[in-house]
Amino acid sequence: MSTLYVVLLFVIVLGAWMAFNYWRLRRAAKVVENHVFAEKIHGGQLVDLREPTEYRKKHIMGARNIPSQQLKQSLAALRKDRPVLIYENDRGQLVMQAAFLLKKSGYNDIYILSYGLNGWDGKVKIG
Fold first, then answer.
1. Who's near 114: CB < 8 A, 6+ residues apart?
2. What is the DSSP pairing of strand 58-60 with strand 124-126?
3. Which helix (H) or strand (E) covers residue 22, if one does?
4. Statement: residue 1 has pLDDT above 70
5. pTM (two decimals)
6. Tens digits of per-residue pLDDT, 27-45?
7. Residues 45, 76: contact at Cβ < 8 Å?
8. Dihedrals φ, ψ of 122, to 5°?
9. CA angle, residues 74, 79, 82, in degrees to nearest 5
10. From CA 26, how far away is CA 47, in angstroms rounded?
């Protein structure tokens, strides 16, 4: 019986942690579908957070590659007065951490591509 309580407690804590992160992400950035993302590209700053090797294979037209590990050092390359659009292959940890960093650094207009590059139906450059 005590094992059941431990498992139940674990599930509750895990669910609470996931809900908290979801809430934090929603406060930091807007997760948008393809058509909204495509509209925001014009006038926005499109950032591919993947590694350079992945970026060279395929990326959204007009994207610049700033790997997530280098984003903190590259913040000066992004303007705070224009929307920042970020993506990776899927919506995962890279975009979450990048959105939190951007928000903490004073960027207010942040957009995340809902299903990442894997779900993108717009123009891409294949290398």
1. 31, 32, 33, 34, 37, 91
2. antiparallel
3. helix 2-28
4. no
5. 0.83
6. 779 999 999 999 999 999 9
7. no
8. -95, -165
9. 135
10. 19
Long-range contacts, 59-63 (Cβ 8 Å, 24+)? 59/117, 59/124, 59/125, 60/87, 60/117, 60/120, 60/122, 60/123, 60/124, 60/125, 61/122, 61/123, 61/124, 61/125, 63/87
Q: Which 3-state string (H, E, C) describes 35-82? A: HHHHHHHCCCEEEECCCHHHHHHEEECCCEECCHHHCHHHHHHCCCCC
Give CA–CA dist 14/110, Å, rounded: 27
